[in-house]
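Q: For a teaching handout, I want to show students what a protein-ligand complex looks like in token form. Below are the inputs, and the small molecule is 2-deoxy-2-amino glucitol-6-phosphate. Please produce the holo structure.
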Amino acid sequence: MVIYMCGIVGYTGSNEAAPILLDGLETLAYRGYDSAGIAVFDGSEIVMRKEKGQLSVLEELLAKEPVTGSCGIGHTRWATHGEPSYINSHPHGDSKKQLVLVHNGIIENYVKLKRMLIEKGCVFVSDTDTEVVAQLLGDIYDGDPIAAIVRAMQFIEGSFALAILFRDDPERLYCVAKDSPMVVGFGKDGAHIASDIPAMLAYTRDVTFMGEKQIAVLSPDGIAFYDKHGMPIDKGSTHITWDLDAAKKGSYEHFMMKEICEEPVAFRKTADQYVSFRNRRLKADSFPWGESDAHDLKRIRIIGCGTAYHAGMLGKRYFSELAKIPAEIEIASEFRYSGYTFEEGEALIVISQSGETADTIAALRMAKEAGVRTIAVCNVVGSTIAREADEVLFTYAGPEIAVAATKSYLTQAVVLFLTAMRLGEIRGTVSAERAAELIDKLSDIPDRMQKLLDDRGEIQFFASREFNAKHVFFIGRGIDSALSMEAALKLKEVSYIHSEAYPAGELKHGTIALIEEGVLVVGIITQHALAAKTASNLEEVRVRGAKVLALTNGNQGDLESHCSKVWHLPETDDLLVPFLAIIPMQLFAYYMAVQKGCSVDKPRNLAKSVTVE
Ligand code: AGP
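A: Here is the structure, written as tokens, with 2-deoxy-2-amino glucitol-6-phosphate included.
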């Protein structure tokens, strides 16, 4: 089966389409980079250019064989199955050459539809499920694009965001979405389609999120919307306040480094929404639970994938420790098939930077169907998760473009921390004095983060000596164990170095067999109550030949004498340490990847938004 998590763009207006489409695709390249293509109406016919490989390959092709015209669509593709190839690149068309389209999503019944269409005489040229939609639309089309789209949707099972260009309606673009993100917007020089907001920010800040099976018709004069039956509807727009520069690399070599360097600001911006630092108080109205319902809360279930899941691991600890509420954390893709039965008084928190992760959306929907209260921690206004959850605790990280999540993790973690604190306040498990103390310490965090960033040369130097490592193990206990998980994920995804995280106490139950001369073990030791125990575990691997690096705060014993290297964190409360400790780990992963010459912002085989399961 071929599945995609791709980027789509479209433009119709008074300017040349190709440069606008390429500009948008560049911004969306984080969604996939196996192949790219555009189709533009040149005044007499639809001209297609597509190529296997990164966007630069398409750009080279267009420099040699330019296309002119002011209405077109574009696509950047990510495939997990089936070879990325010219033939499978988008756009795709129908046998009768009536239309071309680009697609993000998966057509689950494409095999059945393909068989039916072949019997009707369609000649397929690719292995994709997308071409099935193009052929199906072409088979149905009789001059009325909206009627054809409405009819085609009755056959298609699965998820899709489609941008379509009909040959006999060359100034207009049609788009439709189901379970796949898509935004449209109208700027001063025309109308735009994109999979994600940053791709159109240079042209308009007023965007409309496409709802389930809604259709939009874009013309140089405006955008009209229709429901799934083809009836006209009114849709409002959302004004986006992000700074455009936030989605550009500026003077940084990589988005990942830029986004790590933005962490103090992202952290402050997010915390400011939930805390009045001047009054040393939480902003009670910013949280989902109030005096009346916080006491009824019996259990919190936290769901996420990847880095968001790791932020949830911190959240679990915060809810247990600060609010004394039982909290469970589960990976969304496991949870959705676990057959779990929600209990009375339970709430679900889903965490997602993009708000479009397919498995997290599925878990959210399960809870909603069960009548469970759902709260999203999300970075993208208007995303599916932000729209569907009962309440949203937004993070204010700004656009995160690098595939490796960095600032989103930090902002998710602080939102979870503050929510746990608020619940603790109401339930009487966090005193007013303790809350004020934590808020004061929290307000110092951005400056301390900045100090870590300013001192990053030491990490860069260490990475320059260690980048040939074949295996790296991260260990810690409690909160440090949760941090280790994220540190290991960062390192493996950007540097391709095999890295694993273990609760430090687990080593002796098997993993220690992997320790041999020269293996790098990173001990995260920030929790005073557990420090001595992890330090002993580090000593156990050191005497078996491991090279040991410790990341620690305050005075955690005589680590210098046991470790090859010790990195010190600025002092803060044990509960707040993760906001500092993750930064050296992200920098370490970054510098190791740079030293190895890896594609830091777009690691192989990955995409930023995982919109299919
Ligand atoms: C980690 O660096 C990844 N980008 C990935 O694990 C990510 O956190 C995961 O896919 C979840 O994405 P989301 O937050 O957009 O739902």
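A: Two things your students might notice: DSSP finds 18 helices and 27 strands in the chain. The chain has a mean pLDDT of 92.
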